[in-house]
Amino acid sequence: MSEPASKLKKYKKRSQAAEVWRRFRRNKAAILGLIIFSCILLVSIFADVLVDYETKVKEQNFMNRMAPPSWEHPFGTDEFGRDILGRVIHGSRLSLAVGLGSVVISLLIGGALGAIAGFYGGRLDNLIMRMVDIFMAIPSTIMAITIMAALGASTFNLMLAIGISFIPTYARIMRSSVIGLRNTEFVEAAKAIGAKNSTIILTEILPNCLAPILVQVTMSFAFGVLNVSTLSFIGLGISPPTPEWGNMLSTAREYLRDAPHMCFFPGMAIVLTILSLNLLGDGLRDALDPKLKQ
After folding, report:
1. How far are the Cα atoms of 26, 37, 71, 127, 172 from residue 29, in angstroms, in the given order?
2. CATH classification of the domain holding 111
3. Which range, 46-55, 187-196, 204-213, 272-281, has the best average confidence (pLDDT)?
4. Does a cis peptide bond (omega within 30 degrees of 0) precede residue 241?
5. CA pair distance 66, 291, nearest whole angstrom
6. Is residue 101 part of a domain?
């Protein structure tokens, strides 16, 4: 590729990214979601800096159990006198990490299956998609519960269980995107110069499938966080005393009448995280949709 052509290609990529960002920032709800999620992400990354784990999260103080919110404990304390704010902050690490891990697993496996099925078609497409249909017939939460019950409770098994339950969604989205691109001129040109099928998929087709995949990633991330909390709530996820929003809610439900703050703050952490990701996903969908360019 000549130098002018290379510069033109880089300029077009920059201009497209700038246009997407311009449309995205016009959506106030999406910007709000981005701000909220960025704050939650930063809090989880710097949890050790913000709150000491040993003294605020792990240490028990029965003289101060179920204390209401105060200056010393802004979110109050739990049934063991532990600081709820510190536990919510450190619990964000596990909820977000498992949610992200599950998205990566489902994206890699489901995306690969969908790309292969959409590109090659025929019997291979039929075989892969019928297997995907079988998985889609099972609700994702029920599938995750079944996998966790079979494999046992651990952080990796939790990621794997939630990730497997999302594979059919990514497979179908990737397949539909690849089918729409496999007969385009740039793909035919790559075939004409002798490029391998794997190279065509990775360098020509997948970059043009990013828009729907990015939107689905944000949505799956939200559902992943919700499923982590759900499984922990019923005792199949992260077990106490390790702080996690779901198991905090599970423990606090016994004290709902006497200490409602024990349920309120972990619940609000879940609500804000999922709401911010949904707002972010809606904003990305509108910004990346070619039909909305005008």
Report:
1. 9, 12, 32, 41, 28
2. 1.10.3720.10
3. 272-281
4. yes
5. 53
6. yes
